[in-house]
């Protein structure tokens, strides 16, 4: 028979190259929080099942944890009233707060882009001063020249800029 996970993934318009299937998120608060935390940096498309009476709560938690990613909400798959609603997490939450969801839902969320992950990593490094960033590598036993190369790469700047900032 039909499989809601694969059917939703195919009709969602989201990337089908790599995906993870979460089924229903856990009801236990600690376990649910842990799963949502893992999904923050997930680059694969994520497929989640949800009951209509819990859809608003789940969309809110996804928005808070993943940011305003693109997604498709598929309802009543392989039935007469099948629908696929492609939008963002924020717009979906707004829509389903105004309109009561009906029917079992499959949420297909786009993964975090590799560019976004790289940008977040670079921003994390930029929170440190160049000196603190250098100390991070020097404390690991890396020599000064290699540390400067690593800092320059992490920050997306030239080694000369690192040198000028570090030697001050």
Describe the structure.
The radius of gyration is 21 Å and the shape is elongated. Helix content is 51%, strand content 17%. The chain has helices spanning 4-12, 29-39, 55-66, 89-98, 114-126, 130-138, 144-155, 159-167; strands spanning 19-24, 45-50, 70-75, 83-88, 105-109. Helix 2 links the parallel strand 1 and strand 2 (45-50). A five-stranded mixed beta sheet has the order 1-2-5-3-4. It has 168 residues and is of the alpha+beta class.
Give keywords.
alpha+beta, five-stranded mixed β-sheet, single chain, 168 residues
- SSE-based structural type: alpha+beta
Roughly how many Å is the radius of gyration?
21 Å
What is the β-strand count? 5
Unreliable parts: none
What's the helix-strand series?
Answer: HEHEHEEHEHHHH
**Terminal-residue CA separation:** 69 Å
Q: What strand line-up does the widest sheet have?
A: 1-2-5-3-4
Please state roughly what percent of the residues sit in beta strands, choosing from under 5%, 5-15%, 15-25%, 25-35%, 35-45% or over 45%. Answer: 15-25%
Taking the sheet with the most strands, its summary is: 5 strands, mixed
Helicity, in percent? Answer: 40-55%
| Inertia-based shape | elongated
Q: For the residues shown, what is the average pLDDT?
A: 88
Helix segment tally: 8
